[in-house]
């Protein structure tokens, strides 16, 4: 039984790390008050679920628009995507 625990634990830890790296939620950097995006959401969000929008810091490696939903979730979006540009125009 103990021989299966170590590989199972290693597999679960690896799976957790993969899901964390592919998450489209913003994360903080070492720079005070800056937020960056690791990944972008892959589908468009309707305007009706967005409560707030803000840009990531200029110190980030990749540009991003953070969409805050009415439920309080923060989701990174690619500012080059047509649906994001359209959303920004409507909210602008």
UniProtKB/TrEMBL annotation:
Residues 33-91 form the Chemokine interleukin-8-like domain. Residues 1-24 form the signal peptide. GO terms for molecular function: CCR chemokine receptor binding; chemokine activity. The keyword Signal applies. InterPro entries: Chemokine_b/g/d, Chemokine_IL8-like_dom, Interleukin_8-like_sf. The keyword Transmembrane helix does not apply. This is C-C motif chemokine 22. GO terms for cellular component: extracellular space. Keywords: Cytokine, Disulfide bond, Signal. It comes from Dipodomys ordii. GO terms for biological process: antimicrobial humoral immune response mediated by antimicrobial peptide; chemokine-mediated signaling pathway; eosinophil chemotaxis; inflammatory response; positive regulation of cell migration.
């Amino acid at each position: 039984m103990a021989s299966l625990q170590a590989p199972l634990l290693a597999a679960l830890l690896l799976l957790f790390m993969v899901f964390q790296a592919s998450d489209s939620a913003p994360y903080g950097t070492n720079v005070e008050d800056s937020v960056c995006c690791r990944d972008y959401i892959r589908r468009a969000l309707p305007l009706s679920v967005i409560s707030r929008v803000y840009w990531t810091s200029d110190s980030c490696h990749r540009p991003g628009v953070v969409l805050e939903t009415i439920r309080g979730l923060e989701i990174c979006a690619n500012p080059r995507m047509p649906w994001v540009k359209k959303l920004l125009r409507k909210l602008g």
